[in-house]
Design brief:
Organism: Grallaria varia (variegated antpitta)
Structural class: mainly alpha
Keywords: Lyase, Membrane, Mitochondrion, Mitochondrion inner membrane, Ubiquinone biosynthesis
Protein name: 4-hydroxy-3-methoxy-5-polyprenylbenzoate decarboxylase
GO molecular function: lyase activity
InterPro entries: Coq4, Coq4_euk
């Protein structure tokens, strides 16, 4: 029942296997394309350095990514197990879907009715001028299946913004991080939720503390695991219906 590849299986995220000779010619010897082997000490140094940089500049997505990979040794297996024991999550682990421009039919999503997940997701991307292709591939996760789990988490992050109704400014990112911290237990999310508010104004801090954080925490605790939703097969579903199904309370 484990959707895992052997160390010698040169399979990409799409599940395709290339010629063995080609892999050897490229010098690829990791657990998956792009994997970099690191010792526990190296991971600790990477975690410390990336945490400092990310706290100084929360928009350094490369450092946030490294922090997530080097500190997720307990949270990622827990998320993987939740997916394994859920029918939809297990299918995701088996099929390895990707959310990127090469897999999305953006024209079709734009034509979906207002209020549907697909239409609102595209609206979020366009309004905030973001692209699903900006998510970095994992490098420092020493398990092929767990590497996919953190990749999947990164690729559904914008969908969390869509479902929670939060923009990509600092206030919106902090709210999403509170929800994700409760949902995933990833230390990177916890740090972002705890230290992100230091850059907010007093007025925004008041709104955050009195309304948004309590709502995000309650929703995170009440919701089922957000990685167990096959979003690619839910584009036509109304956002409100999906929120209710997952257990996310309506935004305040």
């Amino acid at each position: 029942g484990r959707a895992r590849l052997s160390h010698s299986d040169p399979r990409g995220w799409d599940g395709r296997v290339g010629p063995e000779e080609e892999v050897e010619e490229e010098g690829w010897h990791g657990l998956y394309p792009g994997h970099i082997r690191t010792s526990p000490l190296q991971k600790a140094l990477l975690a410390a350095g990336s945490a400092v940089v990310a706290l100084c500049d929360p928009y350094r997505h490369d450092m946030v990514a490294v922090l997530g990979e080097t500190t997720g040794c307990l949270a990622l297996p827990n998320l993987r197990d939740k997916m394994r024991h859920h029918p939809e999550g297990y299918r995701i682990l088996q099929e390895r879907p990707r959310i990127c421009l090469s897999t999305l039919d953006m024209s079709r999503l734009r034509e979906l009715p207002d209020g549907s997940l697909g239409r609102e997701y595209v609206r979020f991307l366009e309004d905030n001028k973001v692209s699903p292709d900006t998510r970095m591939p994992p490098k420092f996760v020493d398990d092929e299946e767990l590497a996919y789990v953190i990749q999947r988490y990164r690729e559904v992050h914008d969908l969390m913004h869509t479902l929670l109704g939060m923009p990509t400014n600092m206030l919106g990112e902090v709210v999403v991080k509170w929800f994700e911290a409760v949902q995933t237990g990833l230390p990177m999310c916890v740090l972002g939720a705890a230290f992100g508010p230091v850059r907010l104004s007093a007025r925004k801090l008041q709104v955050l503390a009195t309304e948004l954080v309590p709502w995000a925490i309650r929703s995170g605790l009440n919701a089922s695991c957000v990685l167990n939703v096959y979003y690619e097969q839910r584009w036509e579903q109304p956002v409100e219906s999906l929120r209710e199904e997952i257990g996310i309370f309506p935004p305040p």
